[in-house]
Amino acid sequence: MLLLSMTIILGTLTIHDAVPLEDQNDVGNPVKRNYRFVEANNQFALSILNALDKKNNIIMSPWSFSMTLGMAYLGASGSSAREMEEVLGYRSAGIERDLVHDGFRIEESALKRVHGKNELSSANVVLVQEGYTLSKSYKDDLKRYYNSSTTEINFTRPQSVLQWVNAWGYWTSNSKIKQILTETPPKTTKLMLLNGVYFKGNWLNPFNPEHTRLEDFTNENGRKVTVPIMHMINNVSYVAYHKLGVYAVNFPYDGEDINMMVLLPTENNNLNAVEDKLTTAVLEDILAQMEMQTINVGFPKFELKDDRKMKETLKSLGMQSAFSENEADFSRIAETRDLYLEEVIHKAVIQVNENGTEANANTVIPLMNKRKLPEFFANRPFLFLIRNMRSGAILFIGHVVQLE
Ligand SMILES: *[C@@H]1O[C@H](CO)[C@@H](O)[C@H](O)[C@H]1NC(C)=O
Ligand SMILES: *[C@@H]1O[C@H](CO)[C@@H](O)[C@H](O)[C@H]1NC(C)=O
Ligand SMILES: *[C@@H]1O[C@H](CO)[C@@H](O)[C@H](O)[C@H]1NC(C)=O
Ligand SMILES: *[C@@H]1O[C@H](CO)[C@@H](O)[C@H](O)[C@H]1NC(C)=O
């Protein structure tokens, strides 16, 4: 069973001018347009991963992250909008403004249609200071593209805002995230954009708990720790992909629309080198090269929690003006033009274990085979991505460099 949840907040929007985007003139069909949109988001996910401090474990939801930034981008103009297009990857992919927002809408409805006994939900809401007037078009577009309602709240009573937000986070994360906010937001906050994504998936082929053993895992720093490692012999999509120096497998969830792709560096390679070279094109190529093979799998049980403030990372990637009191331009949100982004908070939790929900969860039949099976033994740092196979969207990404 895999349990994931995450919530993201964009803080204080507190403001100025619109420059029209050039006409990208995209007349492609919706599926194709959304493919480019998904690819842009995925490329952004990999940039974020590489911009983080990689000495620690990472878990985040690019989907949640991009969507919340999408709601901010919806209200951005001028240089703030241009920088966001650049950093979020929409500009280089040649996707014009409206198609970005429509991309989120299309992908959200696609996620509602994934097969199997999984839970996958996402929710958006925008909190607004009582008496603060949002432009009608912003409100309408929030609803139209992001299915986000707007709720009035009094930010000059920070304690009650804290309670409201944490209760919402608790609800959308299925009780996994107890405190999205640990500090009260500034009283000058005018707007807060919130998104929560929740996923609970059961492995199509669960691991048999009787085969879980305590074994060594070598952390990034070379220290060996003893952790529970799950085992199975099964047919899985697998490739030894030498161009990047990784072994890759896909673990499908029930319904097979969503899966976890795990990239394990080869013995003489390391995770950092893999992550540096990873692009969406490489990911696609790995997928294309994968073949069903009988594999002897060893994969640790693990739990990761992340709590990040992403402002500095986004600034380092080029999103400068949106965070600047003087330069930010969110004039599409409110005519008063006094808004800027205060912070981008991202929390995520992941639990990986053997489970399937169903009674037949443990019906994997180990296969005896005379030839030596290829082994996929994740007893050292690895990268994982949880993807919607139909669209390719990366819902969650993370890496494990140290276990305890
Ligand atoms: C929109 O959001 C509401 C409240 O979160 C939810 O009940 C509803 O199913 C959503 N609608 C769509 C089309 O996603
Ligand atoms: C918000 O709360 C403050 C402090 O309690 C109060 O003075 C103010 O009237 C409230 N604003 C609104 C619009 O209710
Ligand atoms: C794996 O695939 C082989 C060849 O297609 C098949 O004979 C075998 O039964 C499969 N094993 C399992 C555990 O599904
Ligand atoms: C897996 O599911 C079974 C049955 O629901 C439950 O008893 C068991 O505790 C679960 N195992 C884990 C590791 O969550």
Automatic annotation (TrEMBL):
Task: Please indicate if the UniProt record lists Signal as a keyword.
Answer: yes
Pfam family membership, one: Serpin
Xref: InterPro entries: Serpin_CS, Serpin_dom, Serpin_fam, Serpin_sf, Serpin_sf_1, Serpin_sf_2
Taxonomically, the superkingdom here is: Eukaryota
Q: Where is the Serpin domain?
A: 46-403
Which UniProt keywords are present, listed alphabetically?
Protease inhibitor, Serine protease inhibitor, Signal
Q: Which PROSITE patterns match?
A: SERPIN
Which SMART domains does the entry link to? Answer: SERPIN (SM00093)
For this UniProt entry, which residues form the secretion signal? Answer: 1-18
Q: Does the keyword Transferase apply?
A: no
What the record says about family reads: Belongs to the serpin family.
**Which protein is depicted?**
Serpin B6-like
Q: What organism is recorded for this protein?
A: Limulus polyphemus (Atlantic horseshoe crab)
